[in-house]
Amino acid sequence: MTRRTDWSGSTGEPGGHDTPAGYGGTPAHDGGAGGPGEADGPPRLPWSSREAGGTGGPKGFGESGRGRRDARGSRSSRGSGAAGEGREAASKPPQDPAEQARNICLRLLTGTPRTRKQLADALHKREIPQEVSDEVLSRFEEVGLIDDAAFAGAWVESRHHGKGLARRALARELRTKGVDPVLIDEAVGQLDSDQEEATARELVARKLRSTRGLERDKRLRRLAGMLARKGYPEGLAIRVVRRALEEEGEDTDGLDYEPF
Q1: Is the pTM of this model over 0.85?
Q2: CB of 51 within 8 A of CB of 61?
Q3: What is the predicted pLDDT for the residue at 85?
Q4: 257 near 217, Cβ under 8 Å?
Q5: 134 by DSSP, 3-state: which?
Q6: DSSP reduced 3-state for 109
């Protein structure tokens, strides 16, 4: 067996880190020192890509080192990129408050109409100066991007036919959105008493079947209470429910009902 001390360049010290010239800790190939391999040049590693047809040495050798270097390089490049972006952002001048206000309003108005009060509250929350906010909102009104009258009319149309809300409930919702009382009156004025009562009858007819089997007084309270929550006046609610029960054959004489 060829001893380590026989390799060219050996120091002769057992247990040392003796290597052939040009390789770290790898014995000479093709018969050791002085053999044909040495005459042809530096010894080749047995796991060389030229012999194994692969991309590197055995598992844990060579490739892992490259992976660590690549990972360090990747982290370094990411870090430098993030630092560069931070410096670029810091170098940008602060955004003009008017431009910022316009961007906020346009983003909020995308796909969803809003009242002037809703937009004003959003600008205030983002600390836009009051005078800038007023100027931008007034300009939006001039070009038709803010139209509280149109908003209120569309709201009444949608919520009445979609949810069956009466004028009182609709007016309450519009007040919470900051619509001017005059515009609210005009919007809810689209609904007359006949239309409101017709909608109340439709609501009761849909709910009536689910109350069958209950006591008569309980049916009345449940149906009238449903109409009350949607903003219908008490007198209208009781009248509509009584008629619906009578049409089903219920005797409504002496029907007890506690006002809501």
Answers
A1: no
A2: no
A3: 56
A4: yes
A5: helix
A6: helix
